[in-house]
Give the backbone structure.
Amino acid sequence: MSPVILVIIVLLVILACLVAAFVMLGRGTTRFTFDIGGGVPRASGGNDSSAETGFKNRLLGLSVFAGSVIGALLLKLWSMQLVSADDYSAQAESNRTRTISVVAPRGRILDRHGSELVSNRASLCVVAKSDVAGDAIEVKLLANLIGMPAMAVKRKIESTSEGAQSMRTVAEDVSRRIVAYIDEHTNLFPGVQVTQRTQRLYPNGSLAAHVLGYTGAITADQVDALGKASGGSISYELGDTVGQAGIEYQYESVLQGIKGTQTVYVDADGNVLSTSSKVEPQSGSDITLTIDKDVQAAAEASLAGHIKRLHDAGRQDCNGGAVVVLDATNGDVLALASYPTYSPNVFVGGIANDDWTDLSSDAANNPMLNRAIAGQYPSGSVIKPLTAFAALNYGIATDASTYVCTGYWTGFGTGSGQYCWNKSGHGSMTLETGIVNSCDVVFYEIGKGFFYADDPEGMQETFRAWGLGSKEGIDLPGEAAGRVPDAAWKRDYYASYSSDDSSWKGGDDTNLAIGQGDLLVTPLQMCCVYAGIAMGGTVYKPHLLKSVDAAVGAGTVIDYKASETYQVNEADDNLSLVRRALKGVIYQESAAQASHFTTLPVTVAGKTGSAETAKSQPDGWFVAYAPYDAPRYVIAATIEYGGYGNEGAMLVVRDVLGQIYDCPDTSTQQTSSGER
């Protein structure tokens, strides 16, 4: 019988007894009493205060009170059983059940040909119930088995980051030996289990590490931020694994799956008694990138190899660099390499302190920095095509302008001057041959022209029109904007100096014209500039996402549509002059340099650059595109403190072209050191 019904019956019995008692005791037949003394008879009511009358009044009051109480109880029972039955049933059910989240596998990341760049692997994990933390013997045995301090095991079991009723993760990727021992000695580990989960896997090690990024445990701040970013479609909680860098971070809401749920029954102390219904998790969507795995591997190998060669040859500060490879026709990023690099696998399951110390030490040279998009460098001579555009557009020079290079320029007076990289001089130069031979004197004259021009910031305006000083908008976190200095910037930046020191001078213009001074660019920006030159002024937004694949079945749910970042309207004659000059750099500037490119099946256009630094060696640059007549591939490479552009960066670009066209570089000729 239901306890509620039993209570109602008892209350009704009590009420019936009270009513019966009232009726029986209240039924008297004598209405009058007589005075024995023979007086006049009077009614026994009125002021009669006999014990019998008082008892009856108290009984009546008690009956009314008891009836009111019982009536209120009956009314409440009626409300609970009929009106609010559903609410109370739900509360009762919630007191004895809990819902545990079941983690969903993340989506994979693939290259443009479907090769796996990031996947998932099975991982055997030791998990324990929360009450194991109170059993010192079981904790000690478990700690000895898996090789962890007992206190560390206890803290992991006490952690509620995975949910109050969830099994607590003690160790991941445990060996088969540990699994077998726990299975064979269940009497020693009554609250311990071994379960299989998925872990992130980067099968190619450090390949494309700065593109892919890594995952890690979600922080308290990220719980709300990522939930809002997903539009509420994904529920995040402490203990989740989320993207922390690169594509893993950029497309977190796509790669993150939808959690499943497991309903369990618990006792009054919250201990799990049994399991009930389960909703299976839904894995995240796969992402296909524009990256070509083979081109990426070639870029990384060549960059690392030439940096090591230069370092071993005495360039002690040469320890870093970057390469960017774009498809100029749509902005696809075919490769994006940064050196030094790291393996995202070290972050899987939480990075060890020793590994983090190695990655963050000064000796490591900041391997976490994505130099391809966040490294900011003076451009050196790879900026000279834009300087030429500025000169032509603002009337500082024409295609017929001529200059005489003696190796030393004193355009602002004999009191001071600037050297050309070729201190012997180039002789008579035009704007086109000035680009071909990278003659600094030609561009000093252009800088001087702007200093005295009616529009003295024509170079800055041209550089900004070509995207410098702004982010390109690539779908990766951490992109830098670089810097295009002008008079206002210098005045603010050097505000604590004298007015003379903080004012813009002619030397600032001549330095800017050759990519020196305070100008800062990223490898990605220069790659986009040359893509625009190749495409007649059209610059497509660089991107890594090619498509988002359907979670169920074949096909895609999102296909990236190419979009223009900006369109620069350069006159056809000006574009033709610069393009001819860039082809001349490859085949006319140096026979040794040309020998590396004449073996290719296509014609190449490009430019060397060397940017002076505070250290003994300049940053070396080389940017090129091919084929010359139908441009598609654009490659930008820079090597920090690696010397002149043709000593290292040029050879990296050639190796990448060799991979693209299946034509390795067979030339052994070395170009002489210089600005080239």
